[in-house]
Amino acid sequence: MNTFFQLFVSGLATGSIYALAAIGFTLLWQASQTINFAQGEFIMLPAFFVLAGTQFLGLSFPVAMAIAVVLSLLLLGLGFKRIIIDPLLPHGVLPIVIATIALGILMKEGVKQFYTAEALPFPALFSDRTLNVLGAAISVQDIAVLLIALGAVALLQLFLNGTKIGRCMQATAQNPNVAEILGVPVRRMILYTFLINAALAFLASILISPIYLAKFSNGETLGLIAFIAAIVGGFNQIRGALAGGLLIGVIDNLSAAYISASYRSAVPLILLIIIILVRPQGLLGKAEGRTV
Amino acid sequence: MSKHSLLTLVAGLSILILLPFTQSNYGVFVLCSWLVYSISAMGLNLTLGYAGQVSLAQASFMGIGAYMTALMTMAGVPWPAAMIAAMVSCFVIGFLLGYPALRVQHHFLAFITLAFNALVVLVLRNEEWLTGGTYGIVGVPRPEVFGLPTQTPLAFYFFVLALFVLMAAGLYAIIRSPWGRAFKALRENPIRANSLGVDIRQTTLLAFAIGSSYGGLAGSLLAQLTQFIDPHSFGLTISLKVLLMVIVGGAGFFFGPILGALLIVLAPEFLRFTEGYYLMIYATLVIVLMVFCPTGLLGLVERARTAMKLRQNPNATTWEAGR
């Protein structure tokens, strides 16, 4: 029972990081019908910005973090939208899928060639002490990760529901044409969405890198899991992506311990297939009407 | 078919027949893998270019075909039976996989096939008693055609070429048939096609299943070509590679995937001097191509041709010029 509780909490912690990635994914889809196949690499990269700052430029950790945030927003938010998505958007989903796949390869290979192919330790933001909760050893890091990630999601929800910009963004996601008629600056709202996705990717990156080490190939699994989490939870819902992320995190941990270590990664995939077959709109999603 | 295109076809075939004689053994190997990947990409083109459904599982069908052929021929089953069995099972699996996925249409087939491919690789890796796990299977026998062995690269090339021509002809017939026209109608405007009596689900399902069986055959040939197979050769990256072949060449054009496969099989050979930067250059080229010409290279040719016709006859509308 203790092990179960332990696995459950650490599953929630990694799950909350998956949720950040999945939410970014969902936001991009809603705002601009962009399926970002490079999402995993978006999460891999910011950690390397920080490492490059501290190792090559000799910056202190907080300064390197600050620069990494700015770089992430510029490259993964603004640059990604301007250079890749904007020209491709009129041509439908498929060219974007291909281009983001290629972008993912480019980012992965870039880190491998220009930085390192090794897995680098990333400074932990919190102590790795463990607390004794009801006989189970729960690490402080897990708790902190969970709180920060959930806090970020709560802030995002507040922003989307409570501010004018946030509501304009929602209107854009629901129906860009009507939003435009009502005077919402649709293009800018879409840009904000890309910036938020970049910020979420940065956050996920610095939260997950201390746990899994920073490595160029991290994005492969992360991207796939973010993807699965978004669909399982509900592709058109933020809370769906959150639930999906947490669920996949927990299931992943538990199935590694209780089912089979070698088929561990099969469990989320099977879950994905079942969800698509039984409830294609996701656990918390609303069914989308088919447009004629 | 006009006289002009018939001539082009004959010329193309003669080049394909004569080309290997000018090549080293390695050159023939590269040509063979081009033809094999072309078959796979042709199948995906049917799903993607003609029926408009994104599948990310073409490599897993190649894997199923390759392992079935390898295991069956090594157990003593004659190769034609093994290859036909591989194609039929891929057709059936494609049907079973697509049946529920196509119920919900658009991007869901992409997601399901993505998960399916990852699952197939996991099974191939973990079920060591059958598949040899990560070590794969070594020593897949080459077929003996009418008593002639195909051990030499040249002989095997002609075996692959024969099947390639057969499959291409098959695809051409499918596209020209009422079915094939239904695929196209569906891609252009599903609702209109539906109102004209095309069963959307059945038609896309059929396209997907046929496309998958093409993948199965390509896998069979790949196993015999390399005589060694492992799970790594059928992962998601390979599916993406095949998808890229279709897109780069031009989805929905008959010769698109063949051209795309040529470029993507040859690209590593030409970019070898760049060493580690190869994949980065490759990825950049793909992004640039997508940004400037999302319809692929043949789409670019088509666009140029339309522009030329418009210049000759300025009064024609774009639509007429495109005919």
What does this structure look like?
The complex is a heterodimer of chains A (292) and B (323). Chain A has a domain at 19-218. Chain A is 74% helix and 3% strand. Chain A is built from 11 helices and 2 strands. A two-stranded antiparallel ribbon of chain A has the order 1-2. The longest helix of chain A is centred in the first third of the chain and has 31 residues, at 2-32. In chain A, helix 1 (2-32) crosses helix 6 (164-174). A two-stranded antiparallel ribbon of chain B has the order 1-4. A two-stranded antiparallel sheet of chain B has the order 2-3. Chain B has 2 domains: 22-264, ABC transporter involved in vitamin B12 uptake, BtuC; 274-323, no CATH class. In chain B, 45% of the residues are buried. The mean pLDDT of chain B is 87. Chain B has helices at residues 3-18, 25-50, 58-74, 79-101, 108-126, 128-131, 153-176, 178-188, 190-195, 200-226, 236-249, 256-270, 278-292, 296-312, 318-322; strands at 137-138, 144-145, 148-149, 228-229. Chain B starts with a helix and ends with a helix. The chains are: A mainly alpha (292), B mainly alpha (323). The interface between A and B is large, with 40 and 40 residues.
What kind of oligomer do you see?
heterodimer
Order of adjacent strands in the largest pleated sheet of chain A:
1-2
- Tally the helices of chain B: 15
Number of domains of chain B: 2
Strand content of chain A: under 5%
Number of helices of chain A: 11
Order of helices and strands of chain B: HHHHHHEEEHHHHEHHHHH
- Helix- and strand-based class of chain A? mainly alpha
Shape of chain A: globular
The outline of chain B comes out as globular
> Got a strand count of chain B?
4
Low-confidence stretches of chain A: none
Percent in helix of chain B: over 70%
Family (chain A): Belongs to the binding-protein-dependent transport system permease family. LivHM subfamily.
Keywords (chain A): Amino-acid transport, Cell membrane, Membrane, Transmembrane, Transmembrane helix, Transport
GO molecular function (chain A): transmembrane transporter activity
Pfam family, one (chain A): BPD_transp_2
